[in-house]
Amino acid sequence: MKHRRINKNPAYIHHKDSGFVDTIKETVFGVEDGMVSTLGALTGIAAATKDPGMVLLAGFVVIAVESISMGVGSYVSSKSEKEVAERILAEEKEEIETFPKEEQEELYDMYVRDGWPKTMAKNMAKTASKDKRLLLKEMAYRELGIIPENGVHPVKNGLVMGISYIVGGTVPLLPYLVLEVHSAITCSVFVTLIGLFILGASITTYTKRSWFRAGLEMLILAGLATLVGYGVGQIMNSVVM
Predict the structure, then answer these.
(1) DSSP-based three-state secondary structure for 142
(2) 161 closest CA partner among 91, 69, 61, 229
(3) Are 172 and 192 in contact (CB under 8 A)?
(4) CA-to-CA distance for 209 and 215, rounded, in angstroms?
(5) What does the domain layout of the chain look like in residue ranges?
(6) d(CA 239, CA 52)
(7) Where are the alpha helices (DSSP H) in the chain?
(8) What's the rounded Cα separation, in Å, for the pair 189 and 36?
(9) Using CB atoms within 10 A of its CB, is residue 22 exposed (0-12), middle (13-18) or buried (19+)?
(10) Arithmetic mean of pLDDT, 151-177
(11) pLDDT tens digit string along 66-75?
(12) d(CA 129, CA 104)
């Protein structure tokens, strides 16, 4: 019997290469944190010292150190997540080896809860139990919420996070490369706020939200974080000085 193939809709995310979608969390987090953290550090240092050399040096140091730290943090956390999932799968595999009948009955119960007719659910569970790899895949998905094929990629996540931070951190630093400190402070804040809005709006390519509302949300939330950070810095500076 010939089956008609569904024409892929290029507008659907799941019909596209999911390379970026898989790392969208690291990308957005890295770029946003790079802009906000670097802006806060540069603004505080620039306002306190008025020294362009000091501001630029601090900016490069902050971006270098934080991008490495964020990248390593993402790698370690992703690796830990992967190792936990691997252990859970190993434990489930051991249960299948030790209690095959009970695991088959458990899979049958899950099929029934999902709405499958009992006769069909029984046949499906029986068929799956004949192949331990298939049974493990079904139990991993339905009982544990794990899709073995869609594993976490620690190295990829770490690299994306680090590079994203560098991209974000460069935005507030650029004005200090071409303007004197007083003008650069205002320009840096303005450029970063625009960057935050663009970041929020660009995500709607994948979420289908209103680009204006998404951009405004990112601008307000990240802007408030920047404002609070700058305020705390000024208070601490006045107390210390």
Answers:
(1) helix
(2) 69
(3) yes
(4) 10
(5) 25-240
(6) 24
(7) 19-22, 24-49, 52-98, 100-113, 118-129, 132-139, 154-178, 181-202, 204-207, 211-240
(8) 10
(9) middle
(10) 95
(11) 999 999 999 9
(12) 6
